[in-house]
Amino acid sequence: MNRVRLLVMNAALGPLDYRVPDGMSLEPGSIVVAPLGPRQVTGIVWESERLPGTEVPDARLRPLLGALPVPPLRAPLRRLIEWTADYYIASMASVARMALSSSAALRGGGTITEYRLTGALPPRMTPQRDAALSALDGEQGTIRELADLAGVSEAVLRGLVNADCLEAVEVAIDRPFPAPRPDHAPPDLSPGQQEAADRFVDAVKARKFAPMLLDGVTGSGKTETYFEGVAEALRLGRQVLVLLPEIALTQNFLKRFEARFGVAPTVWHSAQKQSDRRRAWRQVSEGGASVVVGARSALFLPFRDLGLIVVDEAHEISFKQDDGVRYNARDVAVMRARFERIPAILASATPALESLQMAEAGVYEKIDLPARFGGAVLPDIRILDLREESPPRGRWLAPSLVKAMEERLERGEQSLLFLNRRGYAPLTLCRQCGYRFQCPNCSAWLVEHRLTRRLACHHCGHQVASPEACPECGEKDCLAACGPGVERIADEVAEIFPDARTAVVTSDTLSSPDKIGEFVDAAQAGEIDVIVGTQLVTKGYHFPELTLVGVVDADLGLEGGDLRAAERSYQQIAQVAGRAGRAAKAGEVLIQTRHPEAPVIAALAAYDRDAFYEAESDARRNAGAPPFGRWAAIIVSSEDEAEAAEAARKIGGSAPRLDDIAVYGPAPAPLSMLRSRYRYRLLINARRSAALQQTIREWLGPLDHPQSVRVGVDIDPYSFV
Ligand SMILES: Nc1ncnc2c1ncn2[C@@H]1O[C@H](COP(=O)(O)OP(=O)(O)OP(=O)(O)O)[C@@H](O)[C@H]1O
Ligand SMILES: [Zn+2]
Questions:
Q1: Ligand 1, closest atom to CA 218?
Q2: What is the ipTM of this complex?
Q3: Same domain? 355 vs 252
Q4: Looking at 564, 594, 617, which one is the last position of a domain?
Q5: Which residue, judged by its Cα, is nearest atom 22 of ligand 1?
Q6: 482 has binding-site annotation
Q7: Is position 605 within any domain?
Q8: Ligand in closest contact with the CA of 439
Q9: Per-range mean pLDDT, top range of 10-19, 114-123, 308-317
């Protein structure tokens, strides 16, 4: 009899066996629907020898209900799912769910009805209709999507359909995307760039696993160079995946890609419309999407014939996912390349220590671009010692920084002030009684946002309107803002330079692709004099008139007990410094600090990256920290404080005693309450040779906890809160 084993999309269930009805032809990777009690589940046909389970006798097998009309998941993706689940101690179902991330796509082809404006005006205009008509100009989508987009109810849009202002269009679900043209507009590469590009082209042709680290200074043309590898994959009819750390960088990338290849690539991220995701997923699996640019979740897309993976800004910590399956997309990208037998390019001006170490060990091939493109020179970096030159009371910009900005304004050039803190002030308290505004769900202060007149928690999203009186003592107008956020710096700029045109750039202000596009256009057109921004502006952007970068508080990133604090600070400041003087005009960077002697700051000022990485390597080697040793974290949480503490104690009490693995804790997490859950942490430090995952599995496996307790394992953690 014909039977199959399924990986079902339910983490609570093990593998399940089913009978294959006559006439249904399946292979490993086929996606099927199976009966489960009275319900149905989606499953993936898996090699039974790779998915051990209890054998059910033939007679007890239930027949499958059907196969979904999508290509089977290919073996390299199945191996990736297994590896990710194994390495990050996650269930295979939760990893596989990331591969089947568009349920709409699984249902197969056909058409759907979308709507678009006809140009006609309704006989009766209302404010909502008016708003809808202007918001939907040039848009097309389902009624639900258009209602979201326009911020009106579906009923309003149905009214517009009846009035013939919106017309129905039948759209094929799985239209292929326009094909990028490899030879549309190739650049003239510099000799150094050409050499790097040739390596990428050869590697793509060779169709072998080849991890490469593209280590190029800011403005060296890393993108232009790896685009040649992309072009080669296209010539060979193969697909390409480009991972970006943030959706905010996508707009910029799309423009550059289109200029080089004639059409935009296929986009993939979680904030997309469902219909866009559905089409992208299907075309990725059928080959009608040749280049996908996306956030980390694109890594698990079912490519038909992948030829190259690029991870741009590969050092970025946002490649690490901190909920659900806690994986690092940079590392998983290299594994996918290995299973697919293709090259992977990790591009960065400030590579992660882990990546440099792999290059040093000869595992990654290192490709260098040591000079800026077009003769542009790296900016001058100057340290402003705030102990010697302090800003006036209540201000945050030192006189020489203000003077440098003034010069830029006079010359019509742009300045960028970097402070990695959203909002107006990180802490708000009552001047009268000292009351501090705290989040009710998290052990964190509320951050004042003056632009929206709200106090917000940056951990859970809780928001309240800024109160007029202190909730504790009732005193009016008594709120004191402590410390600066970007909004406060922008206010200071407005006071000093009332005529300067200032843009605040954070995830609050650039919340949609359109807004990002508007900002980039305005900055490029010279309509902005001063940009005040968080880490969002540190990377990717290329504004030729930007000649001054001011780092408002270089010491900020060094606070907190984070293992990678120094490295991250170095990367952020080096990246933001890299925005200055990228074209014909030379750039200058002023770094405000109270610790000019800190190794990070000294290395930045001296352009001595090697010295910084060496010192950092030594420190990590001594601490047995990555990449020389390994860390893992266990996070125990519950809405019930006592339950969380008890579960953590139980885990701590049964910790293994081994020579090569040390366990610290449990201790209350630095963020001891998050989203109304009490949290405890254990930290595990292992030698590289230790069987870390296996030890953790054997340790946690037998322990039982109340249902409300969550135990999460974070392998190679980045977050230490
Ligand atoms: N060969 C070339 N021909 C024309 N323009 C180029 C070439 N190489 C680079 N450029 C231009 O130089 C600028 C910097 O290049 P790019 O953004 O690729 O650098 P990068 O190394 O990715 O920088 P960063 O790491 O700072 O983001 C871009 O505007 C790019 O279009
Ligand atoms: Zn909160």
A1: 26
A2: 0.95
A3: yes
A4: 617
A5: 222
A6: no
A7: yes
A8: 2
A9: 308-317
Q: Same structural domain for residues 354 and 404?
A: no
List Cα–Cα distances, 300 to 77, 81, 96, 480, 500, in angstroms. 7, 8, 8, 47, 46
CA distance between the termini of the chain: 53
Q: What's the pTM value of the predicted model, to 2 decimals?
A: 0.87
* 74 lies in the same domain as 159: no
User: Residue 208: which CATH number?
Assistant: 3.40.50.300
C-beta of 136 in contact with ligand 1 (< 6 A): no
Q: What pLDDT shows up at residue 112? A: 79
With helix as H, strand as E and coil as C, how does 494-508 read? HHHCCCCCEEEECCC
In a domain, 624, yes or no: no
34 shares a domain with 48:
yes
Pocket test for ligand 1, best of 190, 373, 575 (most atoms within 8 A of CB): 373
- Same-domain pairing of 590 and 660: no
- Answer whether residue 452 is part of any domain: no
Residue 55, domain extent: 3-100
In a domain, 672, yes or no: yes
Give residue 711 CA to ligand 2 midpoint distance, Å. 20
Regarding the beta carbon of 223 and ligand 1, being less than 6 Å apart is answered yes
CA-to-CA separations, 23 to 3, 18, 20, 43, in angstroms, rounded = 13, 15, 8, 19
Is pLDDT above 90 for 434? no
Residue bearing the CA closest to ligand 1, atom 6: 221
Q: How many CB atoms lie within 10 A of CB 639?
A: 14
Residue type at position 207: R
pLDDT > 70? residue 680: yes
**Annotated binding residue at 470?**
yes
Which residue has its alpha carbon closest to ligand 1 atom 7? 221
Residues 594/599/601/602 CA torsion (nearest 10 deg): 110
With a cut of 80, say whether residue 174 has pLDDT above it.
Answer: no
